[in-house]
User: Fold this.
Amino acid sequence: MTDVHVVGVCGSLREESVTRVGIERALESAERAGASTELVDLVEYDLPTFDPDRKREAAGDAEALATRLRRADAIVLGSPMYHGSYSSPLKTALDYCGFEEFEETTVGLLAVSGGSFPVTALEHMRSVCRALNAWVIPHQAAVPNSHSVLEDGAFADAKLEERIATLGRQAVQYATIEPDPDSFESDQNVGAEGK
Assistant:
């Protein structure tokens, strides 16, 4: 699996981001499974609010982001849960992408919440990925109670750490899967064509 390239996308702009730590741990696990990895930290990107009338090349770093995602064999998306969904920086990043970046690409999901399990954020990310005809790994990593999960920059709960590590391993394991057939959602998503 040394030719597998996994890109992790951190959808949190927070300086002390548990999401970022989670994505980094998933990527470390993917490396241990033999993949090359790359962190796309959205705090480093200038992504204006998506405007369908503006070409991606004229939208800040949108084209650079899309280029990095196109090179991925598998993508791990991470986001904090805001108001029952995922973050606006991640939504903007995904809006600048289409089938070329995600179709038939393996995607893993990680969501972080200050309270209980961020189930709805994971469901919303899964729906968007299905609309882009990505193959979403059934295993997902949910990090609840984020204010107390880290000790000295590491996850204190071994089971949580293993759940995140499994996500990274499975991103490598399923990177070459050939999903068939296309999802109904992607068939209806004309907006993802020609991005």
